[in-house]
Amino acid sequence: MTPRDVTKTWSSRLICHAIRGWLGFALRTTNWQIELHPEARALLLADRHKGTSHTGLLVAFWHEALALSPALWWWAEPRNPSLRLHVLISHNRDGRLIAEIVAPWRIPALHGSSNKKGKDKGGLLALRQMRAALLAGDVVTIMPDGPKGPLHTVQLGVLALAEMTGAPILPMGAMCRHWRAPSWDRMLVPLPFGRGRLVCGAPVHVTSETREAAQKLLTERLNAASAEAQRKTDASPEPLAPLSTHSPSNALGAKIWSAFATLLAPALLAMLRVRVRRGREVRERLRERMGFSTGQRPNGPLVWFHAASVGETLSILPVMRALSADMTLLVTTGTVTAARLLEREASDLLTQKRMQHRFVPLDVPRWVRRFLRHWKPDALVLTESELWPNLIAACATQRVPVSVLNGRLSPRALCGWLRAPAFAAHVMAGLTWVAARSPDDAARFRMLGAQHVSCDGDLKTAAPPLPADPDMLTRARSALGNRPVWIAASTHEGEEDLILEAAHRLRQTWPNLLTIIAPRHPERGADVAALSARAFPGCELPPRRSQDQWPRPQDAIWIVDTLGELGTVFRLSPIVFMGNSLFPTDTSAKGGGHNPFEPARLGCVLASGPQIGNFEEAFTALSEAVTIVPDASALADWVAAQLSDPAHVKACGVLAQNAAAHNAALPQQLADRIRALVRHG
Question: Which of 6, 113, 328, 610 has its Cα between 20 and 30 A from that of 290?
Answer without folding.
Answer: 328
